[in-house]
């Protein structure tokens, strides 16, 4: 399996990870605030269609090592809120919600699909309606980095540094995209 995200149609990214554990265990890392905060973002999520999704990002809390925030991403220092609503849910296999409704224009949408693969779970993340190449580059690098940290957490190892990994991925995706 290729760890890199792929553009599967204009404005749509798909990225996958083979994760250790059961469907229910991985599902908890997608839906429970405390577990999700360890790799992505904390925040309330009522698991029903139409319910509000609140993601509160605090990248400095994703790893134990202090990091310098790149000047380019200064607006992502501290806590950053992302608001959406659940568009589809079939526990513990599928969760889809709008992303960044607070921004102008039509929000994008993220879908998580979980499929058992022996003692592992294949997680597929599809992020649709990304408006342009710059957004695609940032989102792809972000998902790649967050999912790598999720793998680290599920394997009970120290997570890689967020911003250093993100910068490396951004350079690599700049060439790939």
UniProtKB/TrEMBL annotation:
Signal peptide positions on this chain: none
Superkingdom assignment: Bacteria
InterPro entries, per database record = ASHA1/2-like_C (IPR013538), START-like_dom_sf (IPR023393)
Kindly give the Gene3D superfamilies that the UniProt entry links to this protein: 3.30.530.20
Question: Residues in domain Activator of Hsp90 ATPase homologue 1/2-like C-terminal?
Answer: 23-152
Family (UniProt): Belongs to the AHA1 family.
What is this protein identified as?
Answer: ATPase
Gene source species:
Chania multitudinisentens RB-25
């Amino acid at each position: 399996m290729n760890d890199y995200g792929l553009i599967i149609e204009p404005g749509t990214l798909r990225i996958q990870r083979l994760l250790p554990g059961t469907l229910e265990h991985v599902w908890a890392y997608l839906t429970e605030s405390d577990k999700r905060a360890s790799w992505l973002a904390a925040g309330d999520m009522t698991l029903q269609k139409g319910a509000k999704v609140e993601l509160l990002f605090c990248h400095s809390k994703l790893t134990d090592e202090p990091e310098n925030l790149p000047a380019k991403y200064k607006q992502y220092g501290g806590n950053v809120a992302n608001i959406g609503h659940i568009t589809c849910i079939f526990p513990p296999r599928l969760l889809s919600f709008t992303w960044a409704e607070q921004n102008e224009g039509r929000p994008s949408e993220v879908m998580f699909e979980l499929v058992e693969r022996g003692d592992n779970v294949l997680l597929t993340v599809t992020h649709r309606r990304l408006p342009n190449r710059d957004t695609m580059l940032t989102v792809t690098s972000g998902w790649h980095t967050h999912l790598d940290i999720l793998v680290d957490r599920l394997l009970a190892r120290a997570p890689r540094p967020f911003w250093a990994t993100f910068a490396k991925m951004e350079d690599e995706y700049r060439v790939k995209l």
